[in-house]
Amino acid sequence: MSEQLPAHVSPVLEPVEYPFAQTISDLRHENPPPALISPAFTPPATPGTGTPAISREAESIPVDTSNEEPQRLLEALPEVNCVVRARIPTTTGTEMFLHLYQNNVDNKEHLAIVFGSQIRSQSLDAPRPGETEMDRMIRGAYTGRLYPGRTSSRLEPQSGPSQQQKLKSVVDQIGHSSPVPSAVPRQPPSKITSAPSSSPLSSNNPTPTSSAATAPPASINSPLVRIHSECYTGETAWSARCDCGEQLDEAARLMALPSASSSGGVIIYLRQEGRGIGLGEKLKAYNLQDLGSDTVEANLILRHPADARSYGLATAMLVDLGLGGDTGIRLLTNNPDKIRAVEGPNREVTVKERVAMVPLAWRSHGKQGFNSPEVGGYLRTKIEKMGHMLQMSEGF
Ligand SMILES: Nc1nc2c(ncn2[C@@H]2O[C@H](COP(=O)(O)OP(=O)(O)OP(=O)(O)O)[C@@H](O)[C@H]2O)c(=O)[nH]1
């Protein structure tokens, strides 16, 4: 029997009662386990959601989420609590505030990377019984900046001016007029000079879509938000199988632009590695991909949903950061499921605009970013099988 199988099928995968006994081709064409398809799966032909391939200029394409009710929304939002926040000066010159959250649904340390000092966590700022001013400063519940010898978590008019004067003199010395320098992209994109566009509307109305690359800032009231899922391989191990690292860099770059400084920005960094299946399972999926499966098929063969993620924690964190209700956000994504899911079960958050994440190589016609057969297949599968609002670029 084993000699009838393709050479790449391991003999240990032969017992007939398991899907592993079949060839990958069988699984793909005859027996995809329908019960394992994620409720987050979106048919490829989501109307009105494509991103034109030829022009990478700012495009507004209507998206209406008012009739969409994802099946996996919880009835109520989880509880989240920001336990510590710290200022992180970055290698690009931008500063951000890293917020670490705990919650009542898992034991993971989900993060909010906040650009701009105007976005504050309510749970962090809430007083804790018996805590001292030093306790508050140590857990990051302070306003302004920390400096040696500071004794209060609140800005004090008496001691503040001298520190502000010190800061001003430092700023004057280095020739900056703004206390927070703007970002220097890791790979400076020559054609990308402006923030994404936005235009106000509610999620009950058509949502314009703009390209992150070129759109001028039409509205700066709603902060830019990226809901990012952990990807060790793409963010840390230089993987060219996916564009996760590039997307993270690009989100940070956009949020650090001077044009975004009045509204700020937030990257919600969720610890749902491998679309929620974990790193070990994702690595198995990579091996299946090298054996011929696409990213969705590989997950299904491993008996995982195509996408095992949920976004309730992200919604709760955004609400805690004061971005709930009518404040509205501009969401950086191509994923239609994310848009409605992040709004929460009772529309606790309003997505006013979607901003497309177009791969850098596509926007620059190969001059920047990176290309590989693997990332091409990864993006193609997202578009063709997961309804991503992007159109495959020619030559990739
Ligand atoms: N299971 C699986 N997960 C992958 C694979 N490649 C990347 N991932 C994971 O996919 C997730 C990246 O998803 P996101 O960056 O949130 O992107 P998205 O939801 O697809 O859509 P965008 O918001 O448009 O980027 C991370 O958790 C990665 O670890 C893969 O081949 N298989």
- The largest sheet has its strands arranged as 1-2-3-6-5-7-8-4
CATH architecture of one domain: 3-Layer(aba) Sandwich
Helix content: 25-40%
Q: Note the quaternary state here.
A: single chain
General description of the model:
This protein has 396 residues and is an alpha/beta fold. It has a domain at 32-77 and 186-272 and 309-386: 3-Layer(aba) Sandwich (Rossmann fold), CATH 3.40.50. The chain has twelve helices and eight strands. It has helices at 24-29, 122-125, 133-138, 160-174, 232-235, 244-256, 279-290, 295-301, 312-320, 336-342, 360-363, 373-386, and strands at 80-89, 95-103, 110-115, 209-211, 224-229, 265-270, 325-332, 349-356. The chain has an eight-stranded mixed beta sheet, with helices on both faces. Helix 10 (336-342) links the parallel strand 7 and strand 8 (349-356). Helix 7 (279-290) packs across helix 8 (295-301). The longest helix has 15 residues, at 160-174. The radius of gyration is 23 Å and the shape is globular. Residues 228-231, 242, 244, 247, 272-275, 277, 282, 285, 295, 299, 333-335, 338, 357, 378, 382, 388 line the site of guanosine-5'-triphosphate.
